[in-house]
Amino acid sequence: MKYDGNTIKDWAGDSQWRAWRADLARFKQHGYSGWGSEGFWALTIYRMQRSIRKRRIKILWLIPKVIVAVLKKILTVVTHINLDQGAKIGPGLLIPHVGPIQVYPWATIGADCAIHQVTTIGAGAKPGGPVIGDHVYIGAHACVLGPVNVGDGAKIGAGAVVIKDVPAGKTAVGVPARILGQ
Question: Which are the contacts of 74, defined by CB distance < 8 A and separation ≥ 6?
Answer without folding.
Answer: none
